[in-house]
Amino acid sequence: MGAPIIFSGIQPTGRKHLGNYIGAIRQYVEGQERGAPAIFCIVDLHAISVACEPAELRERLYDTMAILLAAGLDPERCILFRQSDVHEHTELTWLLSAVTAHGDLNRMHQFKEKSAEQRQLVSAALFFYPVLQAADVLAHRATEVPVGEDQRQHIELIREIARRFNERFGETLVEPEHRIPAVGARIMDLQEPERKMSTTGAAEAGTVYVLDGPAAIHKKLGGAVTDSGREVVRAPDKPGVANLIEILAVARGVDPTEVEVEFAAAGYGDFKQAVAEAVVELLAPVRERYAELRPDEAALEATLAAGAEKARTIASRTLAEVRDRMGIGAPR
Ligand code: AMP
Ligand code: TRP
User: Fold this and answer.
1) pTM value > 0.90
2) Fewest CB atoms within 10 Å of the CB: 98, 139, 161, 308?
3) Residue 145 CA to ligand 2 centre (angstroms)
4) Which class would CATH give 204-291?
Protein backbone atom coordinates (compact mmCIF):
# COMPACT_ATOMS: atom_id res chain seq x y z
CA MET A 1 0.00 0.00 0.00
CA GLY A 2 1.19 3.46 -0.88
CA ALA A 3 0.79 6.57 1.27
CA PRO A 4 -2.80 7.30 2.28
CA ILE A 5 -4.84 10.10 0.78
CA ILE A 6 -6.21 11.77 3.89
CA PHE A 7 -9.30 13.97 3.94
CA SER A 8 -11.33 15.52 6.74
CA GLY A 9 -13.76 18.36 7.26
CA ILE A 10 -14.55 20.60 10.19
CA GLN A 11 -17.47 22.97 10.68
CA PRO A 12 -16.86 26.69 11.16
CA THR A 13 -19.57 26.87 13.79
CA GLY A 14 -19.48 27.43 17.50
CA ARG A 15 -16.17 27.63 19.21
CA LYS A 16 -13.80 24.74 18.73
CA HIS A 17 -13.41 22.76 21.94
CA LEU A 18 -11.14 20.18 23.54
CA GLY A 19 -13.19 17.35 21.97
CA ASN A 20 -12.56 18.74 18.48
CA TYR A 21 -8.90 19.22 19.30
CA ILE A 22 -8.29 15.76 20.74
CA GLY A 23 -10.67 13.77 18.53
CA ALA A 24 -9.92 15.48 15.24
CA ILE A 25 -7.48 18.39 14.93
CA ARG A 26 -4.52 16.64 16.52
CA GLN A 27 -5.08 13.74 14.12
CA TYR A 28 -5.05 16.15 11.16
CA VAL A 29 -1.66 17.45 12.20
CA GLU A 30 -0.34 13.92 12.53
CA GLY A 31 -1.92 12.99 9.17
CA GLN A 32 -0.14 15.84 7.44
CA GLU A 33 3.12 13.93 7.87
CA ARG A 34 1.75 10.76 6.25
CA GLY A 35 -0.81 11.92 3.72
CA ALA A 36 -0.05 12.15 0.04
CA PRO A 37 -1.78 14.48 0.06
CA ALA A 38 -3.53 15.37 3.33
CA ILE A 39 -6.55 17.56 2.62
CA PHE A 40 -8.58 19.54 5.16
CA CYS A 41 -11.75 21.45 4.46
CA ILE A 42 -13.67 24.03 6.47
CA VAL A 43 -17.22 23.09 5.68
CA ASP A 44 -19.24 26.32 5.52
CA LEU A 45 -21.90 24.67 3.34
CA HIS A 46 -22.53 22.13 6.08
CA ALA A 47 -22.80 24.94 8.61
CA ILE A 48 -25.87 26.47 6.93
CA SER A 49 -27.88 23.29 7.53
CA VAL A 50 -28.85 24.95 10.82
CA ALA A 51 -29.70 28.61 11.33
CA CYS A 52 -26.65 30.88 11.37
CA GLU A 53 -25.98 34.60 10.94
CA PRO A 54 -24.12 35.40 7.70
CA ALA A 55 -21.63 37.80 9.33
CA GLU A 56 -21.06 35.40 12.19
CA LEU A 57 -20.40 32.55 9.75
CA ARG A 58 -17.55 34.48 8.15
CA GLU A 59 -16.03 35.34 11.53
CA ARG A 60 -16.21 31.73 12.69
CA LEU A 61 -14.65 30.57 9.44
CA TYR A 62 -11.60 32.75 10.08
CA ASP A 63 -11.51 31.59 13.70
CA THR A 64 -11.47 27.96 12.59
CA MET A 65 -8.86 28.60 9.92
CA ALA A 66 -6.57 30.36 12.42
CA ILE A 67 -7.02 27.52 14.95
CA LEU A 68 -6.08 24.90 12.35
CA LEU A 69 -2.95 26.83 11.38
CA ALA A 70 -2.09 27.50 15.02
CA ALA A 71 -2.46 23.79 15.80
CA GLY A 72 0.21 23.02 13.24
CA LEU A 73 -1.39 22.57 9.83
CA ASP A 74 1.07 23.93 7.30
CA PRO A 75 -0.29 24.93 3.87
CA GLU A 76 3.08 23.96 2.40
CA ARG A 77 2.55 20.38 3.50
CA CYS A 78 -1.23 19.95 3.24
CA ILE A 79 -4.19 21.31 1.32
CA LEU A 80 -6.40 23.52 3.43
CA PHE A 81 -9.48 25.10 1.86
CA ARG A 82 -13.03 26.41 2.27
CA GLN A 83 -15.68 24.03 0.99
CA SER A 84 -17.80 26.64 -0.80
CA ASP A 85 -14.79 27.75 -2.88
CA VAL A 86 -14.80 24.43 -4.72
CA HIS A 87 -18.14 24.16 -6.53
CA GLU A 88 -17.35 20.63 -7.63
CA HIS A 89 -18.37 19.44 -4.15
CA THR A 90 -21.90 20.75 -4.55
CA GLU A 91 -22.41 19.35 -8.02
CA LEU A 92 -21.08 15.98 -6.93
CA THR A 93 -23.54 16.05 -4.02
CA TRP A 94 -26.42 16.05 -6.46
CA LEU A 95 -24.95 13.31 -8.61
CA LEU A 96 -24.31 11.12 -5.56
CA SER A 97 -27.82 11.70 -4.26
CA ALA A 98 -28.95 9.49 -7.14
CA VAL A 99 -27.21 6.51 -5.52
CA THR A 100 -28.04 7.39 -1.91
CA ALA A 101 -30.92 5.60 -0.21
CA HIS A 102 -33.46 7.89 1.38
CA GLY A 103 -33.90 5.26 4.07
CA ASP A 104 -30.20 5.41 4.92
CA LEU A 105 -30.34 9.19 5.40
CA ASN A 106 -33.37 8.70 7.64
CA ARG A 107 -31.36 6.39 9.88
CA MET A 108 -28.51 8.83 10.55
CA HIS A 109 -28.13 9.46 14.31
CA GLN A 110 -26.81 12.97 13.75
CA PHE A 111 -29.86 13.90 11.66
CA LYS A 112 -32.20 12.56 14.34
CA GLU A 113 -30.39 14.42 17.11
CA LYS A 114 -29.99 17.68 15.25
CA SER A 115 -33.51 17.72 13.87
CA ALA A 116 -34.87 17.18 17.38
CA GLU A 117 -32.84 20.19 18.61
CA GLN A 118 -34.25 22.62 16.03
CA ARG A 119 -36.91 24.90 17.40
CA GLN A 120 -38.04 26.34 14.08
CA LEU A 121 -37.00 24.93 10.75
CA VAL A 122 -35.73 21.41 10.21
CA SER A 123 -34.09 22.11 6.86
CA ALA A 124 -33.79 19.68 3.98
CA ALA A 125 -30.08 20.57 4.11
CA LEU A 126 -29.86 18.88 7.50
CA PHE A 127 -31.24 15.72 5.92
CA PHE A 128 -28.88 15.99 2.94
CA TYR A 129 -25.86 16.79 5.07
CA PRO A 130 -24.31 13.28 4.80
CA VAL A 131 -24.49 13.35 0.98
CA LEU A 132 -22.47 16.58 0.91
CA GLN A 133 -20.03 14.96 3.31
CA ALA A 134 -19.76 11.97 0.96
CA ALA A 135 -19.05 14.33 -1.93
CA ASP A 136 -16.26 15.99 0.10
CA VAL A 137 -14.50 12.71 0.71
CA LEU A 138 -15.18 10.98 -2.62
CA ALA A 139 -14.24 14.01 -4.75
CA HIS A 140 -10.71 13.65 -3.40
CA ARG A 141 -10.57 9.86 -3.62
CA ALA A 142 -9.54 9.80 0.02
CA THR A 143 -8.47 6.48 1.50
CA GLU A 144 -8.43 7.64 5.12
CA VAL A 145 -10.76 9.96 7.04
CA PRO A 146 -9.66 11.12 10.52
CA VAL A 147 -12.72 11.89 12.66
CA GLY A 148 -14.15 11.49 16.15
CA GLU A 149 -16.48 8.66 17.12
CA ASP A 150 -19.64 10.64 16.29
CA GLN A 151 -18.79 10.48 12.56
CA ARG A 152 -18.52 6.67 12.35
CA GLN A 153 -21.98 6.23 10.84
CA HIS A 154 -21.44 8.99 8.27
CA ILE A 155 -18.24 7.35 7.05
CA GLU A 156 -20.01 4.00 6.81
CA LEU A 157 -22.63 5.67 4.60
CA ILE A 158 -19.93 7.20 2.38
CA ARG A 159 -18.57 3.70 1.79
CA GLU A 160 -22.04 2.49 0.91
CA ILE A 161 -22.55 5.34 -1.57
CA ALA A 162 -19.18 4.63 -3.23
CA ARG A 163 -19.99 0.91 -3.45
CA ARG A 164 -23.39 1.53 -5.01
CA PHE A 165 -21.97 4.00 -7.50
CA ASN A 166 -19.24 1.58 -8.57
CA GLU A 167 -21.71 -1.27 -8.90
CA ARG A 168 -24.01 0.74 -11.13
CA PHE A 169 -21.52 2.72 -13.18
CA GLY A 170 -18.21 0.85 -12.96
CA GLU A 171 -15.19 1.19 -10.68
CA THR A 172 -14.77 4.95 -10.20
CA LEU A 173 -14.89 5.97 -6.55
CA VAL A 174 -12.68 4.93 -3.64
CA GLU A 175 -14.18 3.47 -0.46
CA PRO A 176 -12.49 5.32 2.40
CA GLU A 177 -11.56 3.96 5.84
CA HIS A 178 -12.34 5.98 8.93
CA ARG A 179 -9.53 6.75 11.34
CA ILE A 180 -11.00 7.08 14.80
CA PRO A 181 -8.42 7.37 17.61
CA ALA A 182 -8.29 4.57 20.19
CA VAL A 183 -8.24 7.12 23.03
CA GLY A 184 -10.02 10.48 22.91
CA ALA A 185 -12.50 9.77 20.11
CA ARG A 186 -15.36 10.88 22.31
CA ILE A 187 -14.48 13.49 24.90
CA MET A 188 -17.38 13.99 27.29
CA ASP A 189 -18.90 17.12 28.81
CA LEU A 190 -17.23 17.98 32.13
CA GLN A 191 -20.53 18.72 33.86
CA GLU A 192 -22.61 15.97 32.25
CA PRO A 193 -20.18 13.15 31.44
CA GLU A 194 -22.96 11.09 29.88
CA ARG A 195 -23.06 13.47 26.89
CA LYS A 196 -20.28 14.32 24.49
CA MET A 197 -18.53 17.65 24.74
CA SER A 198 -20.19 19.97 22.24
CA THR A 199 -20.92 23.65 21.69
CA THR A 200 -24.64 23.20 21.31
CA GLY A 201 -26.90 22.95 24.30
CA ALA A 202 -24.19 22.51 26.92
CA ALA A 203 -23.30 24.67 29.91
CA GLU A 204 -20.11 26.76 29.53
CA ALA A 205 -18.59 25.05 32.55
CA GLY A 206 -18.72 21.66 30.85
CA THR A 207 -16.85 22.68 27.71
CA VAL A 208 -13.16 23.57 27.49
CA TYR A 209 -12.51 25.73 24.44
CA VAL A 210 -9.27 25.56 22.48
CA LEU A 211 -8.89 29.31 23.10
CA ASP A 212 -9.55 29.18 26.87
CA GLY A 213 -6.75 30.65 28.97
CA PRO A 214 -5.13 28.94 31.98
CA ALA A 215 -7.55 30.44 34.53
CA ALA A 216 -10.66 29.21 32.66
CA ILE A 217 -9.12 25.78 32.12
CA HIS A 218 -8.26 25.40 35.82
CA LYS A 219 -11.73 26.53 36.82
CA LYS A 220 -13.53 24.15 34.45
CA LEU A 221 -11.37 21.12 35.19
CA GLY A 222 -11.30 21.85 38.91
CA GLY A 223 -15.10 21.92 38.83
CA ALA A 224 -15.46 18.82 36.63
CA VAL A 225 -18.00 16.33 37.91
CA THR A 226 -16.32 13.27 39.37
CA ASP A 227 -18.04 10.14 40.51
CA SER A 228 -18.66 8.44 43.81
CA GLY A 229 -15.77 6.48 45.31
CA ARG A 230 -12.20 7.75 45.34
CA GLU A 231 -10.24 5.64 42.88
CA VAL A 232 -8.85 7.11 39.69
CA VAL A 233 -9.89 4.24 37.38
CA ARG A 234 -11.94 3.82 34.22
CA ALA A 235 -15.14 1.99 35.08
CA PRO A 236 -18.64 1.98 33.59
CA ASP A 237 -20.08 3.75 36.65
CA LYS A 238 -17.34 6.39 36.53
CA PRO A 239 -17.86 8.30 33.28
CA GLY A 240 -16.57 11.58 34.76
CA VAL A 241 -13.29 10.15 36.02
CA ALA A 242 -12.82 7.97 32.93
CA ASN A 243 -13.15 11.07 30.74
CA LEU A 244 -10.50 12.95 32.72
CA ILE A 245 -8.17 9.93 32.53
CA GLU A 246 -8.50 9.93 28.73
CA ILE A 247 -7.90 13.66 28.53
CA LEU A 248 -4.76 13.43 30.66
CA ALA A 249 -3.48 10.39 28.74
CA VAL A 250 -3.83 12.20 25.41
CA ALA A 251 -2.39 15.47 26.71
CA ARG A 252 0.70 13.64 27.97
CA GLY A 253 0.88 11.19 25.08
CA VAL A 254 0.75 8.13 27.35
CA ASP A 255 -1.52 5.13 27.74
CA PRO A 256 -4.55 5.61 30.05
CA THR A 257 -3.37 2.72 32.25
CA GLU A 258 -0.21 4.71 33.04
CA VAL A 259 -2.42 7.49 34.35
CA GLU A 260 -4.35 5.02 36.53
CA VAL A 261 -1.12 3.62 37.98
CA GLU A 262 0.34 7.05 38.68
CA PHE A 263 -2.77 8.31 40.48
CA ALA A 264 -3.66 5.04 42.24
CA ALA A 265 -3.01 6.58 45.64
CA ALA A 266 -4.05 10.16 44.85
CA GLY A 267 -7.34 11.92 45.62
CA TYR A 268 -9.61 13.46 43.02
CA GLY A 269 -8.35 16.96 43.87
CA ASP A 270 -4.72 16.29 43.00
CA PHE A 271 -5.76 14.35 39.94
CA LYS A 272 -7.90 17.17 38.57
CA GLN A 273 -5.10 19.63 39.23
CA ALA A 274 -2.76 17.47 37.12
CA VAL A 275 -5.32 17.24 34.29
CA ALA A 276 -5.76 21.02 34.30
CA GLU A 277 -2.01 21.60 34.12
CA ALA A 278 -1.61 19.16 31.23
CA VAL A 279 -4.48 20.75 29.29
CA VAL A 280 -3.05 24.24 29.82
CA GLU A 281 0.24 22.99 28.42
CA LEU A 282 -1.51 21.32 25.48
CA LEU A 283 -3.56 24.35 24.46
CA ALA A 284 -1.37 27.33 25.40
CA PRO A 285 0.85 27.18 22.29
CA VAL A 286 -2.23 27.00 20.07
CA ARG A 287 -3.87 29.96 21.79
CA GLU A 288 -0.72 32.06 21.53
CA ARG A 289 -0.13 31.32 17.88
CA TYR A 290 -3.82 31.93 17.15
CA ALA A 291 -3.56 35.43 18.56
CA GLU A 292 -0.80 36.18 16.05
CA LEU A 293 -2.60 34.70 13.04
CA ARG A 294 -6.25 35.63 13.50
CA PRO A 295 -6.03 39.42 12.94
CA ASP A 296 -4.64 39.12 9.40
CA GLU A 297 -7.79 38.15 7.51
CA ALA A 298 -6.24 39.03 4.15
CA ALA A 299 -3.49 36.50 4.78
CA LEU A 300 -6.05 33.89 5.81
CA GLU A 301 -8.01 34.56 2.61
CA ALA A 302 -4.87 34.24 0.50
CA THR A 303 -4.06 30.88 2.08
CA LEU A 304 -7.64 29.69 1.56
CA ALA A 305 -7.53 30.75 -2.10
CA ALA A 306 -4.30 28.86 -2.73
CA GLY A 307 -5.75 25.78 -1.05
CA ALA A 308 -8.97 25.98 -3.08
CA GLU A 309 -7.01 26.01 -6.30
CA LYS A 310 -5.25 22.78 -5.40
CA ALA A 311 -8.46 21.16 -4.19
CA ARG A 312 -10.28 22.16 -7.39
CA THR A 313 -7.68 20.47 -9.54
CA ILE A 314 -8.32 17.17 -7.77
CA ALA A 315 -12.09 17.46 -7.40
CA SER A 316 -12.72 18.53 -10.99
CA ARG A 317 -10.99 15.42 -12.29
CA THR A 318 -13.24 13.15 -10.21
CA LEU A 319 -16.34 15.13 -11.12
CA ALA A 320 -15.63 14.89 -14.85
CA GLU A 321 -15.28 11.14 -14.55
CA VAL A 322 -18.44 10.75 -12.48
CA ARG A 323 -20.45 12.87 -14.96
CA ASP A 324 -19.16 10.84 -17.84
CA ARG A 325 -19.93 7.51 -16.18
CA MET A 326 -23.45 8.69 -15.46
CA GLY A 327 -24.05 9.94 -18.99
CA ILE A 328 -24.31 13.58 -17.92
CA GLY A 329 -23.24 16.27 -20.40
CA ALA A 330 -21.51 15.88 -23.74
CA PRO A 331 -19.40 12.73 -24.07
CA ARG A 332 -15.76 13.23 -23.16
P1 AMP B 1 -17.44 19.56 14.08
O2 AMP B 1 -16.99 20.70 14.90
O3 AMP B 1 -18.80 19.07 14.40
O4 AMP B 1 -17.24 19.79 12.61
O5 AMP B 1 -16.48 18.34 14.43
C6 AMP B 1 -15.14 18.33 13.97
C7 AMP B 1 -14.48 17.02 14.37
O8 AMP B 1 -14.42 16.91 15.80
C9 AMP B 1 -15.21 15.75 13.88
O10 AMP B 1 -14.25 14.85 13.39
C11 AMP B 1 -15.86 15.21 15.14
O12 AMP B 1 -16.00 13.81 15.10
C13 AMP B 1 -14.88 15.64 16.22
N14 AMP B 1 -15.54 15.79 17.54
C15 AMP B 1 -16.61 16.60 17.82
N16 AMP B 1 -16.94 16.50 19.14
C17 AMP B 1 -16.07 15.61 19.69
C18 AMP B 1 -15.90 15.09 21.02
N19 AMP B 1 -16.69 15.47 22.02
N20 AMP B 1 -14.90 14.20 21.23
C21 AMP B 1 -14.08 13.82 20.21
N22 AMP B 1 -14.19 14.27 18.94
C23 AMP B 1 -15.17 15.16 18.67
N1 TRP C 1 -19.77 16.15 9.46
C2 TRP C 1 -18.47 16.41 10.01
C3 TRP C 1 -18.64 16.86 11.46
O4 TRP C 1 -19.65 17.34 11.87
C5 TRP C 1 -17.72 17.46 9.23
C6 TRP C 1 -17.37 17.00 7.84
C7 TRP C 1 -17.82 17.53 6.67
C8 TRP C 1 -16.47 15.96 7.49
N9 TRP C 1 -17.27 16.90 5.62
C10 TRP C 1 -16.43 15.93 6.07
C11 TRP C 1 -15.71 15.08 8.23
C12 TRP C 1 -15.66 15.00 5.39
C13 TRP C 1 -14.92 14.14 7.52
C14 TRP C 1 -14.91 14.11 6.13
O15 TRP C 1 -17.73 16.77 12.21
Assistant:
1) yes
2) 98
3) 9
4) mainly alpha
